[in-house]
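fyi for ur records
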Amino acid sequence: MKKIEKPIELGQAEREKLLMVLEKGTPKEILYANILLMSDKGFTPKKIAEALNTTKQTVNNVKQKYFTHGLGKCLVRKNAGKAPYAPKITGDVEAKIVTLACSSPPEGRSSWALRLLADKAVELQYIDAISYVSVATILKKHNLSLT
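which gave:
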């Protein structure tokens, strides 16, 4: 990212929003708000970085984000709030596995085993694939034991 030489000039509403962030924001938001407020006062990226115990690159990145996206998106992470992919093990799958674990074991077995539960869940098409470790995690989450 290229160095931003242009000074930041915040409006009164933006300053007030940043001051609110200083009171109730996350540590990252507070850092970014301080960078913008200090930039507005005319401090150089080097002075800001030293004062806030961060790098000049971080200061330049925040300034660049402010100029390209505005204040609203400058304080928020790019993918905040959404997972990169949907979870495979949903509540429905968990419920089916717990029900299976509470049922009687297959013929020839005295009790369920973790690997047996995992294989049976796949066989019954509750899920495409699941490891016995994931089955153990589900059972532990529901305070269940196979013994």
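Helices lie at 12-24, 27-40, 45-52, 56-69, 71-74, 91-102, 114-123, 132-141. thats all i got for now
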